């Protein structure tokens, strides 16, 4: 982990030097924006960790995320976020279930 710690320290210590006194990088608003941007990737990585630890691998996560993004974007034309979440997430869950059933059936039949 020393490489990761070194990169983090270079970023934190180099920020005041590169910003010439305007320490915007470590501001509350910027840190909140960075956390918002990486939260989706972090959630997906958490789910993938469980899949990889159990010995499986699932390459469809990126495609499912893209489907969810498109469905939610189409539903965001309706005022409010609630319809997008209420209909977008279950839609992707159904698609993921269908993909999971197909994968398990083909592996069960030794068609790899």
Write up what this structure looks like.
- The chain has 112 residues and is mainly alpha-helical.
- It has two domains: 1-55; 58-112, no CATH class.
- Helix content is 76%, strand content 0%.
- It contains four helices and no strands.
- Helix 3 (61-75) packs antiparallel against helix 4.
- It is flat.
- It starts with a helix and ends with a helix.
- The model has no long low-confidence stretch (mean pLDDT 80).
Task: Itemize the secondary structure elements and their pairings.
Blueprint: H1 2-18, H2 28-53, H3 61-75, H4 82-108
Helix pairs in contact: 3-4
Number of spatially distinct domains: 2
Overall geometry = flat
What do the pLDDT scores average to? 80
Query: How many β-strand runs?
Result: 0
- What's the N-to-C terminus distance? 36 Å
Gist?
By secondary structure, the protein is mainly α. The protein has four helices and no strands. The two termini are 36 Å apart.
Keywords for this entry:
112 residues; mainly alpha; 2 domains; 0% strand
């Amino acid at each position: 982990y020393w490489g990761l710690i070194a990169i983090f320290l270079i970023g934190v210590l180099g920020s005041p030097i590169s910003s010439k006194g305007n320490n915007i990088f470590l501001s509350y608003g910027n840190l909140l924006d960075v956390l918002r941007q990486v939260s989706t990737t972090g959630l997906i990585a958490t789910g993938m960790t469980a899949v990889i630890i159990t010995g499986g691998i699932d390459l469809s996560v990126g495609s499912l995320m893209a489907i969810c993004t498109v469905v939610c974007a189409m539903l965001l034309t309706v005022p409010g976020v609630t319809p997008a979440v209420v209909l977008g997430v279950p839609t992707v869950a159904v698609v993921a279930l269908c993909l999971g059933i197909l994968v398990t059936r083909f592996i069960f039949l030794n068609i790899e």
